[in-house]
Amino acid sequence: xxxxxxxxxxxxxxxxxxxxxxxxxxxxxxxxxxxxxxxxxxxxxxxxxxxxxxxxxxxxxxxxxxxxxxxxxxxxxxxxxxxxxxxxxxxxxxxxxxxxxxxxxxxxxxxxxxxxxxxxxxxxxxxxxxxxxxxxxxxxxxxxxxxxxxxxxxxxxxxxxxxxxxxxxxxxxxxxxxxxxxxxxxxxxxxxxxxxxxxxxxxxxxxxxxxxxxxxxxxxxxxxxxxxxxxxxxxxxxxxxxxxxxxxxxxxxxxxxxxxxxxxxxxxxxxxxxxxxxxxxxxxxxxxxxxxxxxxxxxxxxxxxxxxxxxxxxxxxxx
Amino acid sequence: xxxxxxxxxxxxxxxxxxxxxxxxxxxxxxxxxxxxxxxxxxxxxxxxxxxxxxxxxxxxxxxxxxxxxxxxxxxxxxxxxxxxxxxxxxxxxxxxxxxxxxxxxxxxxxxxxxxxxxxxxxxxxxxxxxxxxxxxxxxxxxxxxxxxxxxxxxxxxxxxxxxxxxxxxxxxxxxxxxxxxxxxxxxxxxxxxxxxxxxxxxxxxxxxxxxxxxxxxxxxxxxxxxxxxxxxxxxxxxxxxxxxxxxx
Lengths: 319, 248
Hints:
The structure holds two protein chains of two kinds.
Chain A: E1 2-11, E2 14-24, E3 29-33, H1 40-47, E4 55-60, E5 63-64, H2 69-74, E6 76-79, H3 91-101, H4 106-119, H5 135-147, E7 153-157, H6 165-178, E8 183-188, H7 191-197, E9 200-205, E10 208-213, H8 215-220, E11 228-233, H9 237-244, E12 250-258, E13 262-269, H10 277-284, E14 289-295, H11 300-318
Chain B: H1 2-20, H2 22-42, H3 45-48, H4 61-73, H5 75-83, H6 85-91, H7 96-116, H8 119-128, H9 133-160, H10 164-180, H11 184-191, H12 196-203, H13 207-215, H14 221-247
């Protein structure tokens, strides 16, 4: 549904978006991750046709966003960052206007507004003016605007920003459900959201895609993935190191905590051991009083940090 | 068909926005008070003793509009940019032109309403004497066209900035130029010092020069074209400015 090819956007001396390509099909929920200022919002603004790219192309449902913007825009529902809405209108008036400008008339419009209001739980504030709404309600009002015409493509810029935990949960559920039939792109800082909602995630940094895959694949990139954490009673760190470091499966050990009675360590595998690390450790440590032993899955936040930070470090070095 | 439906939707929303804030009511009341005060107290409507509105009433319009129209137009784009709703508006399936025209029409219709509400003055002059109502009608048309020209200038300045106050001040200055270029004292000042063709050129840019015909009851196509071309040119400039913002 959405096809982004070699997208570039330059603001003054800065390449805000630098040669990004990806595509999203119907039934996919694509999570867009990246530090602040990485180019997430700029990319979304180009996808939705708010700003034109310097080069590259965006096609939505086969329509080029620059050449043929109106049919392309018709397919998209868009929730911009900070969820803007006309402050002087009531929630009902605003949704009615959005429906009208999307070409919905008469009964179709009433049904659409009603459905959006129900999906976003806005009944209680329906006739309140937008500027009197709390942030959560304003956010949901703008979200309702984006789904009012039941679009095939949804572009959501930080859809859970500023919501309380219950509302976040609600919105994630909504995105996941809609993702079954639509193509959805949403950006977020919250990594647990990626696990909860996305079928695929892209991490961008400094305008470039630095990782692209399912949440599980991304987690594999963590150097923690496959590492074993163990806590043993009655020995000290030196003994543990002595015993484990020579093992053929072990790359290195790291002591996390040591006190009078126990020691906790993380053992990193060599790249070719494929999950046999825990087995080999438990074989080697027969007779020890092991209190805990488990294999790490890898953590997204750690992947995120290592990918986006190491890049920063590289740039600093080359300066 | 679709184009008009989109423009209508935007015009409707804009008009609603005017009347849901105190701005519309404050504007209309101030405008009517000014009209009444200047016509009867300063313009000497009764002293002149003529069944005409040209001098006592319409003469003031370029000056009223100087402050009132930029106040109506200043929020059109500045507010959208400040709040961020511009991003919503321009990602909807409408062309920027439809948005520009829709917004302009809404404000223009609003000004038309304010102008229509001055009807008691027309009734008064008809009650007291036998004015030429054709002349009065032509002057109303001219006044509305002139308001449209000011408004289109305010559209430009509103699109240039996020701050309504800046938009207001800049458009007052531009509109002041449009008045002064044909304001008799200024013209006299010029005509002594520069070549006559230059004087003609300068005065031809003035709204006063072009409004005069309407006040006399003459619907000259050149005057109509003058106001319409200011409107079209200004709205075009607005679209260029908006595109410039988006291109970054």
